[in-house]
Amino acid sequence: MVQNNPYINLIPSKYVSAILKIHEEIGQNALWALGGDLAEALQSVRVEPDCIEILTSKEGAEKIHAAVEQFDPQQITYQVQELAQKALIEGKEYPVYTRSYYFEFFVDGIKAKVEGDLQFRVGNWEWGDTFEFVPYIVYIVNKRTSVVPLYVNYELYQRLGWADRVDKITWVIANRRHCCNHMSSALSTIKPSIMHIK
Q: Which of 52, 62, 124, 151 is exposed most, by the fewest CB atoms within 10 A?
């Protein structure tokens, strides 16, 4: 179940099982968060994940690599990758690149990608700062899990001109506010002595 989520978007059970296994292996050994489509799906965005993306630091990538040794992970390499979707800025398209300390492994047939110290670059511009954020917390079968917050991806997609992704997140945020407004109206009829909302 997802915390603070009025519109729960169910993800395939195979991802739940794989995430729980990853939790079990990593434990408290490293700071990490889920990113990509899976993180958005866990926050009710209508996207279909095709892998598990884990964001961490360089040190975190090394710790995770050691923790998931039983899954026979690739060696960590510092690599540049071009994303499938181009940026659209002022009517012009530009390739979008990422670089990170990267490796992959498989859990029950599901690909997991780990990216340490992730950075973005558009076209031939300078590399951006390391991708940093304060994680949003969701609960997957009562397991506390950090994910990239929607507002962080929203701002990133706006800068890249990815209107389709912006629209999907906007819909979720708008419906959350609508739901919260109705909840506030209902709570206003409850006696203050029993109101306690975190």
A: 124
CB contact at 8 A, 73 and 52: no
For residue 76, the SS3 value is coil
Task: Supply the CATH number for residue 27's domain.
Answer: 3.30.460.40
| Beta strand pairing call for 96-107 and 33-35 | unpaired
CB 23 within 8 A of CB 192: no
pTM: 0.84
Asked whether residue 193 is domain-assigned, the answer is no
Query: Can you tell me the distance from the alpha carbon of 158 to that of 147, in angstroms, rounded to the nearest whole number?
Result: 19
Q: What percent of the chain has pLDDT over 70?
A: 84
**Nearest-CA neighbor of 118 among 47, 196, 32, 177?**
32
Q: Is residue 131 part of a domain?
A: yes
- Chunk the chain into consecutive blocks of 10 residues (it has 198) and report each block's average pLDDT, rounded to whole numbers: 46 94 92 97 95 98 98 98 97 98 98 98 97 95 94 97 97 75 36 29
Helix segments in the chain, DSSP class H: 13-26, 36-41, 58-67, 150-160, 163-187
Burial of 120 (0-12, 13-18, 19+ CB in 10 A): buried
Q: 107 pairs with which residues across the strands?
A: 110
